[in-house]
TrEMBL record:
Taxonomy of the source species: Bacteria, Bacillati, Actinomycetota, Actinomycetes, Pseudonocardiales
Pfam family, one: CHAD
Chain segments annotated as transmembrane: none
All copies of domain CHAD, residue ranges: 215-497
Gene3D superfamilies from the UniProt entry: CHAD domain
Official protein name in the record: CHAD domain-containing protein
Amino acid sequence: MPTSVTLRWYGPPTRCAPAAILDALTPLTERYRLRLDTRRARTRTYLDTADWRIRRNGLVLSHEVVTGPGSLVLHGGEEPVTARLTEPPSWPARAEQLAPGPIRDGIAGAISVRAVAPTLRCRTVTREIAVRKADGSTVLLLEWTEATAIHPRRTPPLIRLTLRPVREDSRHTTRVARTLLATGAFTPTAATLYDELLGTCDLPETRERPEITPDQPADSAIAAALLDCLAAMEATIDGTIDDIDPEYLHEFRVAVRRTRSLLKIAADVLPEGLADRYASGFKALGDLTTPTRDLDVHLLELDELAHGLTVGAPTDLAPFREHLRRCRRAERGRLVRGLRSARFRRLLNDWRTALEPLAETGVSSLTTRRWAADRLRTVTRRVLRKARAITPATPAEEVHGLRKRAKELRYTLEVVQPLCHPASYRKVLKDLKRLQDVLGAFQDGEVQSEHLRRYAQEMLETSPPPAATLLAMGELLAGFVRRQHEARHELTGTLGRFLTTGTGSRLKHLLA
């Protein structure tokens, strides 16, 4: 079957009135007869995660309502998938909160732990037009669509005409398209309606990274990078408080960690005392968020771990799961109170007030390029020195020290990226990330082992669980310890490659 063709019409909105559509299609009436079907109106709400995972996976999920609760529709496969709803949906929703079926199956892998929520809502009015030859046979179907975005902002209608052939013969499609294009009122478009609506609403909105130039005062560049971290925190606060999905808290914590690292790395180029004045506040913020994030990680991994049991059954871990949930409720209560506190709001407001003038007009005589070269040398030297000192017998504390230094190097690289050779930067980042992954696995194994022992003790002291639960938890503990040992063994080889593949040399010559 020949493919359909879509044209944009730039005339005034018609509300799909028959007379207006027939007037726009007048050139076709010399050869064809046009028969208009009934007008159809619907509200369509497009759904995605906060970081656009559905769209990035080539899928489009929408909730479409003509009457009643409506239907969920998923585009992206060979044919659209539709699931009629029996009650109005509630957003945001994670995959497990959607009804079982092909829609949930189709997006679960793309969204993972994230929740879907409305990104754009529009009102569409459509009318189908049958294009017939003189003998009455239909050769082409036209769909006239007028779509008006109503959220997050109201836009003028987008008017599109889609030509859908009904026979193998594509001559009529080509002829009709050429006839309409010749009027000058139509233009071809390859964009989907969703793409065009997103464009009119300036979506997806992305935070622009701060511009950093080689001759910019170093304090101005650092303040801009810190303001970027602050913007990331502010963008995830509400999602964290509302517990929409665990990634909001994760992204909030990443922004806090970057802030703390930059305060340590660049304290000497900031106004005297500024880093010291705020370092304790951001450390307290990191400490506040850690327990809830740790519990999120445990709960997210528990199903997979439970199905990996070889002695116990997944159901044996049900009391442990409930204990984790109780702990999370308590910790999240503390977290939410902290994020809603006047002290927290004052920290962010005062931090912004301190940074904005500095980012606008820095006073440092040190240029960003000179600071970047000096700091990369310093941080790289620390990482390489610690990496060379690691042996299979090195205490775990020293391994964790290397992990912290590697993280400082990663954050330094992120700040100075605009000044780096792109190809060299990608190679260095790839080498560093490989090392960080192994160091992170070692750290996770140790932390999870410690936590599991503590949770088991808490359960014994409050409401002793069945023996099967303790045995299953013991099997999990053995798995964590094994994972840590495997990461420690893998670290030797990873460090060898990191130290001998030229990473240090590339870091020295990274700046453009």
